[in-house]
Amino acid sequence: MLDDQGIRLQKVLSQAGIASRRAAERLIVEGRVEVDGQVVTELGTRVDPAASVIHVDGARVVLDDSLVYLALNKPRGMQSTMSDDRGRPCIGDLVEHKVRGNKNLFHVGRLDADTEGLILLTNDGELAHRLMHPSHEVPKTYLATVTGKVPRGLGKILKAGIELEDGPVRADDFAVVDAIPGKTLVRLTLHEGRNRIVRRMLAAAGFPVEELVRTDIGAVSLGSQRPGSIRPLRRDEIGQLYKAVGL
Q: What class does CATH assign to 69-135+225-245?
């Protein structure tokens, strides 16, 4: 929202950590900044940070410093819940010990207890809701160790679609990463979020999963992050998540 009584746009961008004041001025002049859907090129433009929606190069800028965005590597054997009435280890235990003061976090991307990997944590309810909604089709990538030697044509079969009891599922991408006697490490990407979907898909294709790790959700990657560790998302990662769900 443009606001004659607001704060200069370049100052808002600088305070949000996007760029220095001078570099922010260049971004504005080059037409790379939008305020509420309109490109702004005037350096004197003032905005209301509490009401304006600002994008730089198409990625939204987070202006509310009370919002939290975290990447968690869920260990194997842990429940993907913030609490567990049966007393089983859950991701809420990790949050309790490592993210004090941030109790109202949503978890994005549930994993079964036997699966390790990336889960997003945020108190940004709108972003969490959209990331979990199937209409936005945010891709998720997994590394799976399967039983047996994978034939050359499996990727084509998975991309064409496998029929499961609750409907068909298709892989967006598939690759063989490594092979050892009796096992194959594969990488596959899909935007489905149904329960145990990767395990069920590969089992239906004849290759039961022995180990499974989710490595990516949209633009956010696990990288070298250790199981049980939590890290804040970078600004560019947050911006890309917003972009992926149309915010």
A: alpha beta
